């Protein structure tokens, strides 16, 4: 055989014709696939002249996806071996795991998952080979005649105009552009144990699955449509080592401990009354304190940063949202029309159309720019019931929404200004581990975006340049832009390493344009020019930001945000008046303080304060009263006795002023 020339990890190599990708990485057990010319391939891929090859390690993002999708296949095989009547839906990798949907006569119960996991371990131990073969559409239909959902996916491939993922979540792992492929799980004797419609790639064999666990089952509508049949979805997770799996399970336990929905009830912060409706929270007095502190802080910061406070209504005539483009491009996210005096009105999903009307209310000069408008605008999104989740995904929420109107030349500086503002705000709330995500247009879906190629290119370049200047990691998000322009979002990691999308900054050249709001300013030469509009939300939504903070702090807020900052605890009833006098002094300084004068024993009072995660406890007994002192106790149990009252007050005031965590 003759040799062929390829490139491996940017280095030229000469290999024998017929060489498989696995032979390049035979000494690297962590490599489980290859990227060839930018496309992921199985290690069994036969190399050809000119291939550019990169290894894919099992602990990389792509490697984990391949591991998890392969484990999903093993799970589906185990399910059909144990439940022969089960019909296959879709089984993609997801963040930190995988799932597979099944049509079964009866819902799965926890005992079923134990049996399935046991069968999976046998399949893994057998070392079955993942073997790829190409099939025609007609041949696939014959082979999968007993799998109605797979047949539907094959039909979807030819009718979805390339967007099978948009037509069914996870479908792109099974069908897409090009021909169909089936992956067979082969036993050691070469016989087929099981097969599935799939685009791949996969691990070489099931033995390359180091650690996995099935997590739970749930109902899921086929293709995410509530009008379709309800299937049973099994969720699992898979990791490159047993240690990584254990760490993940520990993070899940920690996340459950920090769940803001549970803590919201325990700390009496907020609730979701059925009488009001799903995704519409109410804030109790203690939650109201946190919400007010957040609002007061961000309102003051906006004014300091040059923004002017405005206010707009919750509803508007439907035509406004056609002008802005929201109804044509975001209509599914808006609530149905309200008939008022024979005209259709809509609950607003965005504040920007109304801010544009404020800008347009009179002639503007270039001397006014940047013009920065800001409000706490309450908006409403028609979220599907299945995605509503506590405060982090709601139907009604307040945005700290702002819009900067600038000349095109001012846009880069304004975006720098906004990014600095955002990062400083997040740091004040205790989030200091960030990266940036740049969401751009999907050129393959021109009907989902408005504006010219040149406008998108300029807008994207401005955002990208500012992001790169920041020195923060920049991650691309192709296709994630809003219909009217690209955006950068700040992704913040919380105390246990989870990532949350927080603030967003969007460059908009569309809404100010003549077909939309026709916004103008008078330039220095007297001509009328179109401004650039920059959308920015610092919290994103107050509700979601609070939910993130509850989980970040596990409910133990820093003193400046804590609903109750200090609790006075008398050792005996006779010490209560002494503490009440002290609380008057603290309240005069704006400190939120209570005295627990209940009949509970002192240790129970301390325990109650710790459960409510109060930052400071001031305990007073006979010696304290005599010495004008207190025992100063933190919520973690640390205590210092005999602290002079003046010192105790100063400690509390300083902790609140400096926004430290205690």
Short description, anyone?
This protein is of the alpha+beta class.
Descriptive terms for the model:
662 residues; 33 strands; 19 helices; single chain; eight-stranded mixed sheet; alpha+beta; five-stranded mixed sheet
| Bulk shape | globular
> For the terminal residues, how far apart are their CA atoms?
71 Å
Roughly what fraction of the amino acids lie in strands?
25-35%
What is the overall number of helices?
19
Helix/strand/pairing category: alpha+beta
Biggest sheet: strand arrangement:
16-20-21-28-25-24-22-23
What is the strand tally? 33
Low-confidence stretches: none
Largest sheet descriptor:
8 strands, mixed
Oligomer: single chain
Radius of gyration: 30 Å
Helix content: 25-40%
Question: Average pLDDT value?
Answer: 93
Explain what this protein looks like in three dimensions.
By secondary structure, the protein is of the alpha+beta class. The chain is built from 19 helices and 33 strands. It has an eight-stranded mixed sheet with strand order 16-20-21-28-25-24-22-23, with helices on both faces. Strands 2-1-5-3-4 form a five-stranded mixed sheet. Strands 6, 7, 8, 12 and 13 form a five-stranded antiparallel sheet that branches. α2 (61-82) packs across α3, α8 (260-266) packs across α15 (542-552) and α13 (411-428) crosses α14 (453-470). The longest helix is centred in the N-terminal third of the chain and has 22 residues, at 61-82. It is globular, with a radius of gyration of 30 Å. The N and C termini lie far apart (71 Å). The model has no long low-confidence stretch (mean pLDDT 93).
């Amino acid at each position: 055989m003759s040799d062929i020339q390829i490139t491996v990890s940017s280095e030229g190599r000469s290999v024998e014709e017929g060489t498989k990708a696995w032979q390049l990485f035979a000494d690297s057990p962590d490599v489980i696939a290859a990227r060839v010319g930018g496309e992921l391939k199985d290690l069994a891929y036969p190399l050809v002249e000119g291939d550019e090859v990169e290894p894919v390690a099992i602990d990389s993002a792509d490697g984990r996806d391949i591991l998890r999708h392969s484990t999903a296949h093993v799970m589906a095989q185990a399910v059909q071996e144990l439940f022969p009547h089960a019909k296959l839906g879709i089984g993609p990798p997801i963040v930190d795991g995988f799932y597979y949907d099944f049509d079964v006569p009866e819902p799965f119960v926890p005992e079923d998952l134990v049996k399935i996991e046991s069968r999976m371990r046998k399949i893994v131990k057998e070392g079955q080979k993942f073997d790829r073969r190409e099939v025609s559409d007609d041949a696939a239909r014959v082979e999968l005649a007993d799998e109605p959902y797979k047949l539907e996916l094959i039909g979807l491939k030819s009718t979805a105009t390339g967007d099978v993922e948009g037509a069914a979540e996870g479908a792109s792992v099974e069908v897409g552009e090009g021909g169909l492929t089936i992956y067979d799980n082969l036993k050691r004797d070469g016989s087929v144990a099981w097969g599935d419609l799939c685009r791949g790639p996969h691990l070489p064999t099931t033995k390359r699955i180091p650690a996995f666990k099935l997590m739970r089952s749930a109902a899921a509508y086929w293709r995410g449509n509530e009008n379709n049949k309800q299937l049973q979805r099994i969720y699992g997770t898979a990791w490159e080592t047993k240690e990584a799996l254990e760490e993940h399970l520990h993070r899940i336990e920690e996340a459950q401990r920090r769940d803001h929905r549970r803590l919201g009830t325990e700390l009496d912060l907020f609730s979701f009354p059925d009488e009001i409706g799903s995704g519409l929270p109410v804030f109790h007095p203690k939650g109201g304190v946190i919400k007010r502190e957040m609002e007061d802080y961000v309102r003051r910061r906006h004014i300091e940063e040059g923004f002017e406070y405005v206010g707009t209504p919750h509803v508007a005539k439907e035509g406004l949202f056609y002008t802005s483009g929201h109804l044509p491009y975001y209509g599914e996210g808006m609530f149905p029309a309200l008939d008022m005096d024979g005209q259709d009105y809509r609950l607003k999903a965005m504040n920007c159309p109304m801010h544009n009307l404020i800008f347009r209310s009179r002639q503007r000069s270039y001397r006014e720019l940047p013009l920065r408008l800001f409000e706490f605008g309450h908006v409403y999104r028609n979220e599907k019931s299945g995605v509503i989740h506590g405060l982090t995904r709601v139907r009604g929420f307040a945005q700290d929404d702002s819009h900067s109107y600038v000349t095109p030349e001012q846009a880069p500086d304004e975006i720098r200004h906004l990014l600095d503002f955002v990062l400083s705000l997040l740091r004040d709330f205790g989030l200091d581990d960030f990266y940036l995500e740049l969401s751009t247009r999907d050129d393959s879906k021109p009907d989902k975006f408005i504006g010219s190629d040149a406008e998108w290119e300029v807008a994207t370049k401005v955002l990208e340049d500012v992001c790169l200047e920041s020195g923060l990691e920049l991650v691309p998000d192709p296709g994630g832009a809003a219909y009217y322009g690209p955006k950068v979002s700040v992704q913040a990691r919380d105390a246990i390493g989870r990532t949350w999308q927080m603030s967003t900054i969007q460059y908009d050249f569309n809404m100010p344009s003549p077909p939309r709001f026709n916004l103008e300013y008078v330039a220095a030469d007297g001509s009328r020019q179109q401004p650039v509009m920059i959308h920015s939300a610092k919290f994103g939504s107050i509700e979601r930001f609070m939910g993130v903070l509850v989980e970040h702090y596990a409910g133990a807020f820093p003193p400046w945000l804590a609903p109750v900052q200090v609790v006075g605890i008398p050792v005996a009833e006779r010490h209560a008046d002494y503490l009440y006098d002290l609380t008057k002094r603290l309240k005069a300084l704006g400190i939120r303080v209570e005295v627990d004068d209940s009949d509970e024993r002192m240790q129970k009072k301390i325990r109650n304060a710790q459960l409510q995660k109060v930052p400071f406890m001031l305990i007073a007994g006979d010696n304290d009263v005599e010495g004008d002192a207190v025992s100063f106790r933190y919520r973690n149990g640390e205590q210092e006795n005999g602290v002079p009252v003046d010192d105790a007050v100063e400690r509390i005031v300083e902790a609140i002023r400096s926004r430290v965590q205690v």
